[in-house]
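Researcher: Quick test of sequence recovery. Tokens follow.
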């Protein structure tokens, strides 16, 4: 049980404090550093309180909000486990994206983490447009085909598919974008991740791996050559 007494904050067993950090993404213990005092809570009788912790992995402050369950003479009980004020944004291998696409997609993921689903859809549209500007018409058509492949693979229903197509490939102004609820946003998130992965990450990973393999192949041939020549002249 989460509670505040004269001695400070009482928290559940240590494992329950292990949370994904929005900054370093480690699942780490958090340590309380600023918690309202019992005297202050008894005087103010708030319905909700905030407390500051720090992430033991990266040291960055973390803010948690709790509802107050009941206030007694010697203790204030809180409804755990506390709501993280900063949400964990989805991770993505951003280094494979061109800079304009990366910048917009990072913002899109922050909107999603903040539960601003219509803002997320608008940022996905801008991310897609930045990708089209980078890839040209061929890339745009390829992304369209990839969306169609995803539709077949996961059996997307028509209404949702048309929403996704409108956001990513539509030409109307942003004020005509369809409404996005958490469920539709969750699908859009997976789809745009997959599209960017197929278009950029997969290709660039393959390019880097091939470049490395060819480098080592050439190096090994270069070192092997004198021995071959030597054996032939003997
Ligand atoms: Zn951290």
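Model:
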């Amino acid at each position: 049980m989460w509670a505040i007494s004269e001695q400070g904050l009482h928290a559940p067993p240590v494992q329950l404090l292990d949370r994904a950090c929005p900054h370093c993404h480690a699942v780490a213990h958090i340590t309380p550093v600023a918690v309202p005092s019992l005297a202050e809570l008894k005087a103010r009788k708030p319905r909700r309180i905030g407390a500051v912790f720090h992430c033991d992995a990266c040291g960055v402050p973390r803010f948690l909000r709790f509802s107050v369950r009941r206030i007694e003479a010697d203790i204030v009980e809180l409804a755990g486990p506390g709501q993280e004020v900063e949400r964990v944004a989805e991770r993505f291998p951003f280094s494979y994206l061109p800079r304009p696409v990366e910048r917009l997609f990072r913002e899109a993921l922050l909107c999603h983490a903040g539960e601003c689903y219509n803002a997320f859809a608008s940022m996905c549209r801008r991310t897609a447009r930045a990708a089209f500007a980078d890839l040209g018409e061929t890339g745009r058509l390829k992304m369209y085909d990839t969306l169609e492949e995803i539709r077949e693979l996961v059996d997307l229903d028509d209404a949702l598919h048309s929403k996704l197509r409108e956001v990513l490939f539509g030409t109307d102004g942003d004020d005509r974008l369809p409404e996005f609820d958490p469920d539709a946003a969750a699908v859009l998130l997976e789809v745009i991740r997959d599209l960017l992965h197929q278009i950029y990450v997969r290709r660039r990973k393959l390019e880097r791996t091939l470049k490395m393999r060819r480098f080592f192949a050439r190096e090994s041939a270069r070192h092997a050559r004198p021995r071959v020549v030597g054996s032939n002249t003997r």
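The chain has a mean pLDDT of 88.
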